[in-house]
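User: Run a structure prediction on this.
Assistant: Running it now.
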Amino acid sequence: MPNTEVITDIDQITDKEKLAEEKKRLKSEQKEQKREAKRRAKELYLQEAQLDDDSGTSGVSVFLVTTLIVVVWIAILCLLVKLDVGGFGSSVLTPVLKNVPVINKILPSTDEVTDITTETGEDYGGYKSLEEAVKYIKELELELQSAQSAQSTSSEEVANLKAEVERLKTFENNQVEFQRIKTEFYEEVVYAENGPGAEEYKKYYESIDPATAEYLYKQVVQQVEESNDVKEYAQAYSEMKPKEAATIFESMTDNLGLASRILSVMSAQDRGKILGVMDPATAARITKIMDPES
């Protein structure tokens, strides 16, 4: 029994030693892990600090490069405007920016603009200044107004002429009616089959009241003379070519009554030839005068 108790005590001592060694090992591992964690934390801190420095430097670099590019482009544009490449500076920017302080320094000089304008002769669409172009536009507007006024005046003149034509047609119709009444009187009274004739009327007029007789006598004598003249005209026109006679009659638009009297004493054959080659409208008017009842 004593031997058994000794063995048990030895086993207990061995287990305690193992536990102590295990605890020591665990503590050693924990310390190592803490040191490793601190080392990693320090490395991460250093990396973050380096990244912050790099990003700050990179942002400044990008800003500087961008600013440099913008400045270069502005310088190029200012140079192009100053040299008046394509006339952009003188024709577009100068009228707008010439009174703006500082900015107008980049505009082409007045002498250069004048020289370019003198050499090319082209500025503001071919004009030396904007004022000249505006002045010419106003002149064109005045000419347009004058043309419109002239057109309106012409329209009024045409309307007046049409009104005058209508007025004269009334006189023409009255002339036709007068000729019809006169012809009817001659046919039914003076030149009727049983009528006394123009010579008898002439004698009758000579025997009545002197003043009245004088007036009536002149009318009858004039009628007799006109009849003789008309017969002579009719003879002359009968001997002409129909086309020539028709042309003359057509020109007598202001005295178609005389034309109708001349044609009425011509033979039907000669009268038909002339009327056949006349303007249809004029021929119709003359026919109506010669025979109002038709």
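DSSP finds ten helices and no strands in the chain.
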